TrEMBL record:
It comes from the Bacteria. Gene3D superfamilies: P-loop containing nucleotide triphosphate hydrolases (3.40.50.300). It is an enzyme of class 2 (transferase). AMP binds at T31, R36, G85, F86, P87, R88, Q92, R161, R172. This is Adenylate kinase. It comes from Streptomyces xiangluensis. PANTHER family: NUCLEOTIDE KINASE. The keyword Transferase applies. Pathway: Purine metabolism; AMP biosynthesis via salvage pathway; AMP from ADP: step 1/1.
């Protein structure tokens, strides 16, 4: 099965992508992971990507398309894959269509995670990271530390990243609406899109995704189970 997972920042794409790919035993393909792999290996694509990322810029379309094309050509994708973070604009979507057509395949489903803008702002702007270990993450609403401003694990100071500030989050949402939302329209025209709510617990959202691709069941009450 070949799936594209799409949605705005804060919708939980990364979390759902890992779980859904594992459940289906297919490859989870993340552009972020691919860039790190190519940079670590010192490939030409990696060097080009690193130049832009180091300058705080997005990698150009041709570089992003290049790493995706190389990844999809590997044998382990024959069983299927789940794309996370690509395509981020219409040019990349059209390039993906071409890559798949060349291999005589196509996407089976596009899952569009839907979430209110206010909830996106709440989720992202409420995050607090530990200065000693950024893997220790808390939230002002959902996961408060026992002592305000201090990490429960190591006692480090908690802080808010600049990228997580409300003004920045709203700007990211504007970019998503202008650049990435048209990708949904592109695949909607191909009859591939199912929109699912990204609200609720992680398992609830996963269950909705599985139902959308025919891998789950909906009981008499309307709840999904897998």
């Amino acid at each position: 099965m070949r799936i594209l997972l799409i949605g705005p920042p804060g919708a939980g794409k990364g979390t759902q992508a890992v779980r859904l790919a594992a459940h289906l035993s297919i490859q989870h393909i993340s552009t972020g992971d691919l860039f790190r792999e190519h940079i670590d290996q010192g490939t030409e694509l990696g060097q080009n990507a690193h130049t832009h990322i180091r300058a705080g810029l997005l990698a150009p379309d041709e570089v992003t398309i290049g790493v995706i094309k190389e990844r999809l050509a590997r044998p382990d994708t024959e069983r299927g894959f789940l794309l996370d973070g690509f395509p981020r604009n219409l040019a990349q979507a059209e390039a993906l269509d071409g890559i798949l057509a060349d291999s005589k395949s196509r996407l089976d489903a596009v899952l569009d995670l839907e979430i209110p803008e206010a909830e996106v702002v709440r989720r992202i702007a409420g995050r607090r990271l530990c200065r000693r270990d950024r893997e220790h993450i808390f939230h002002v609403d959902y996961s408060q530390p026992e002592v305000a401003g201090a990490c429960d694990v190591c006692g480090g100071e908690l802080y808010q990243r600049d990228d997580d500030r409300e003004a920045t989050v709203r700007k990211r949402l504007e970019v998503y609406r202008s650049e990435t939302a048209p990708v949904v329209d592109h695949y909607q025209a191909q009859g591939l899109v199912t929109t699912i709510s990204a609200l609720g617990q992680v398992q609830e959202v996963l269950d909705r995704a599985l139902v959308a691709i025919g891998q789950g069941q909906v009981d008499a009450s309307g709840a999904s189970s897998c």
